[in-house]
Design a protein that fits this description.
Length: about 375
C-alpha cells in the first residue's frame, strides 16, 4: 500500500473514538467523503462500546478494538490517530509498517526520541507513507496569504515577533487523571496548549536558532508547568517572545510580527478566519500596496478540514506534507529546547538536543522538582 491511485478515494480509518474524533476529525472526513476524496472504512478503540457507538453514529462499516487487526482487515491508506500522546509512537509505527499514511493529533509524541523512531519507520521514498501532525493553524486562507507575502519578502525582513497562548483551565480540568502528567499528557501548556501557535509562529518566521526559557507551577497541583515563557532568536536574526499559560481568565491566542514594512497581527482563540488578521503598513508604504496586502481572498478558516484537504492532495500527488518529517520535528524540538532551558537555566541552540541528552527522551530531562517522583527514584537507585 505504499502508493495510491490518485483518482480513487483514500481508505481512511480513525483510531480513538473520543471527543476530538467526533468534534473535529469525523466532520472533516465526512466532508471529503462527500467530495469523493476519502472513504472512511473503520474505527478502532480499546473500548468496544465506544468503537461500535461511533461506527453506528457515523455510518462507518467496521469497528475494531485492536489496531493490528484493523490494519490487517480494513487495510486503510490513511490512519487518523485521535489517541493520547503516550501511544502515538507505537500506533504510528504500526500503521506505517502496514503501509498507511498517518495523521496524528497533537501533541505528536512525548519526546524527540519517539518522533525520530516514527520517522525511521518511514521508507523515505517520494510516494512512500509518512506520518504527519495535526497542526491545523498553519492552514486556511489567512495563514496561506500571510505566509506567501512574508516568505516572498513583501513585508521586508521580520524583526520582532510575539506569540501568546494565554488560556484558562480550572481544577476540574486537571482532575482528569491523565492531565498534567508528563507520561500521559506529554507536557504542560508549552506542549499541550500553546503548541499550535508556536507551530504557526515557526512556520511564518522560519528556523529558530536559540531559545531561553522559563517555566513555573504557580496554581495547579500537577507534574508539568502551568505557565512558561521563552525568548527566541531566529536564524534570520529576528528575536521574539513566546508565552504559554493556563492561568489567564481573559483567554486569547495571538501572534504579532513586526517587519521592516509592516506589522502582521493575528488575534483569535481556537481558530482563525481572514477577519482575525490585521496588516498595518509602515509609514511610506503606498496605499495601493497595503490594499493588495489586505486582499485575503475567499475566507477558508483554519481547521482540521483545511489541513486534511491539503494532506489528502499531497498523498495523492506523492508529495511530502508540510507537517511531516522535518516540518513537524522543528516545533517539537523548539518545545523540548524551551523545557531544557527552563529547567537548566541555560540557553539551548537548535540541533543541540540529541541521543544521550536526557531531554531527548523525556521532556522533563530528569530535572529535580520537575521529573516525576518514580523517575527520580529510579535514577537514585541507578
Amino acid at each position: 500500500m505504499s502508493s495510491h491511485r490518485s483518482n480513487s478515494p483514500l481508505r481512511a480509518a480513525v483510531v480513538g473514538a473520543g471527543g476530538i474524533a467526533r468534534a473535529a476529525h469525523l466532520p472533516a472526513l465526512r466532508t471529503l467523503a462527500d467530495e469523493g476524496e476519502v472513504d472512511v472504512v473503520a474505527v478502532a478503540d480499546v473500548a468496544a462500546g465506544a468503537a461500535r457507538g461511533l461506527a453506528a453514529a457515523a455510518g462507518i462499516p467496521h469497528a475494531f478494538t485492536d489496531l493490528d487487526t484493523m490494519l490487517a482487515e480494513a487495510r486503510p491508506d490513511l490512519v487518523v490517530l485521535c489517541t493520547p500522546p503516550a501511544v502515538h509512537r507505537e500506533q504510528s509505527i504500526a500503521a506505517l509498517r502496514a503501509g498507511a499514511w498517518v495523521w496524528c493529533e497533537k501533541p505528536p509524541c512525548p519526546s524527540l526520541a519517539d518522533f525520530d523512531a516514527i520517522e525511521s519507520a518511514e521508507k523515505g521514498g517520494d510516494t512512500d507513507p509518512y506520518a504527519a501532525i495535526v497542526f491545523q493553524h498553519r492552514f486556511g486562507s489567512g495563514a496561506r496569504h500571510v505566509r506567501r507575502l512574508l516568505h516572498g519578502g513583501a513585508f521586508g525582513r521580520p524583526l520582532v515577533a510575539h506569540c501568546q497562548t494565554t488560556w484558562y483551565r480550572d481544577a476540574a480540568y486537571y482532575a482528569v487523571p491523565w492531565r498534567g502528567r508528563w507520561a500521559t499528557e506529554g507536557g504542560g501548556p508549552a506542549m499541550g496548549h500553546g503548541i499550535h501557535q508556536t507551530d504557526l509562529l515557526l512556520d511564518l518566521m522560519g528556523p529558530w536558532a536559540e531559545v531561553r526559557g522559563m517555566a513555573a507551577r504557580l496554581v495547579h497541583d500537577v507534574e508539568t508547568e502551568d505557565v512558561s515563557t521563552a525568548q527566541v532568536r531566529f536564524a534570520g536574526g529576528a528575536v521574539g517572545t513566546v508565552v504559554n499559560s493556563v492561568l489567564s481568565p481573559d483567554e486569547v491566542s495571538r501572534i504579532r510580527i513586526d517587519c521592516e514594512r509592516a506589522t502582521i497581527e493575528l488575534t483569535h482563540l481556537y481558530g482563525h478566519r481572514n477577519a482575525d488578521w490585521r496588516i498595518t503598513p509602515a509609514p511610506g508604504v503606498p496605499e495601493e500596496t497595503a490594499a493588495d496586502w489586505r486582499g485575503f481572498g475567499a475566507d477558508e478558516p483554519s481547521s482540521h478540514l483545511a489541513q486534511l484537504r491539503v494532506l489528502v492532495a499531497d498523498v495523492k500527488a506523492g508529495r511530502r506534507h508540510a507537517t511531516s518529517g522535518a516540518g513537524g520535528r522543528r516545533t517539537l524540538e523548539f518545545i523540548t529546547a524551551l523545557y531544557k532551558s527552563a529547567f537548566t537555566g541555560a540557553p539551548v541552540s537548535a540541533g543541540e538536543i540529541g541521543p544521550g541528552d536526557p531531554y531527548y527522551t523525556e521532556l522533563h530531562g530528569g530535572a529535580p522538582g520537575w521529573a516525576p517522583a518514580d523517575t527520580r527514584e529510579e535514577e537514585d537507585r541507578a
